[in-house]
Design goal:
Number of domains: 2
CATH topology of the largest domain: Rossmann fold
Radius of gyration: 28 Å
Number of strands: 6
Strand order of the largest sheet: 3-6-5-4
Shape: globular
CATH architecture of the largest domain: 3-Layer(aba) Sandwich
Structural class: alpha/beta
Oligomer: single chain
Number of helices: 11
CATH class of the largest domain: Alpha Beta
Order of helices and strands: EEHHEHEHHEHHEHHHH
């Protein structure tokens, strides 16, 4: 449906904000805008620190820019929107924003250089000096200084917090260094809580959940693969490999779902794979294969007992 405004005897068609991630530009150029500001009101009323994990091209950067304009008190941009009559426009909060959506962070030192450049730009714009060399100390000092100068707590906004890690996944040592560096930087948000009115971080990953599922998945895949292939028969190694691949795939699906990436597609794909495996197993064993299935289950159970007895870490009876 095309919305039109009538005026001066002619119709004016609004523009579609394709590729525009700046709230001010959308509003001042009279582009189409789906009003999400009612959600902002709920977020501010119900909490203080937020993290949003969603795939790219989901509108996270535009939402973050909307938050920036709101906390800075730019009243005219919100005229006619849901939040307008619910917001105290007499109060303006300083905004401290970091954006990692630009650039590439595969090389050592690129992240540190980028963070320092962003902090330099904020300090110049706000007229705040700093004698600190490290990014966490400078970030913390900025929050405190902006709070003291304005009398209002700071809104902290971080866009694509995890991109420096994702960019360097093919270079593990750089990815680990970037992760540790960001961990120190983001810890200042926790310890600077007294100076923060609102914080909002966006990204595409939940690394704690992914590492949890991948670790457990690889562990169980290894254990059950050993059980199945224990006897060393011709078909046992093949079955062991199939079991290992299946469990690793399961852990991958679980991890992707926790990351919120293409949930519907993942659910459908896993359902199809699981259904196909069930049909294949039914066809392989058939109604006459119950005794064979029972025999294999007994063998696998016995193998599990033997592995447990061989494991030096398992408790032994005195």
């Amino acid at each position: 449906m095309i919305e039109r405004e009538l005026g001066a005897g002619r119709a004016t068609q609004r523009k579609l904000p394709i590729g525009i991630q700046t709230f001010r530009e959308i509003r001042e150029d009279h582009c189409y805008y789906v009003d999400k500001t009612a959600y902002i009101g709920r977020l501010v009323d119900e909490g203080k620190h937020y993290f949003l994990s969603r795939p790219r091209r989901f509108g996270k950067s535009l939402f973050l820019d909307t938050l920036k304009e709101l906390f800075e008190g730019n009243d005219p941009l919100f005229d006619g929107l849901a939040i307008h009559d619910r917001w105290d426009w007499s109060v303006c909060h300083p905004v401290l924003r970091l954006d990692f959506s630009r650039g590439n962070f595969k090389e050592p030192g690129q992240l540190q250089e980028d963070v320092m450049a962003q902090l330099d730009a904020v300090e110049r714009r706000e007229g705040v000096g700093s004698d600190y060399a490290g990014a966490p100390a400078r970030f913390s000092h900025l929050m405190e200084a902006l709070h003291e100068r304005s009398g209002q707590r700071v809104a902290v906004l971080v866009d694509e917090y995890d991109k420096p890690i994702l960019d360097a996944l093919e270079v593990p040592e750089v990815a680990r260094a970037n992760r540790d560096y960001l961990r120190g930087l983001y810890s200042t948000i926790k310890f600077g809580d007294a100076h923060i009115a609102f914080s909002f971080l966006t990204g595409v990953s939940k690394f704690s959940k992914v590492s949890l599922f991948s670790g457990l998945g690889l562990y169980f895949a290894s254990v059950f693969s050993r059980i199945v292939s224990r006897k060393g028969r011709a078909y046992s190694s093949i079955l062991g490999t199939i079991v290992r691949v299946a469990i690793v795939a399961l852990s991958l699906f679980m991890g992707l779902r926790e990351m919120g990436i293409a949930n519907e597609i993942i659910t459908l794909a896993f359902g199809l794979i699981l259904g196909s495996a069930a049909i294949a197993a039914a066809m392989a064993f058939g109604m006459e294969g119950r005794d064979l299935a029972k025999k294999h289950m007994e063998q696998w159970t016995e193998n599990l007992k033997e592995i447990d007895e061989d494991d030096p870490s398992s408790p032994k009876e005195e």
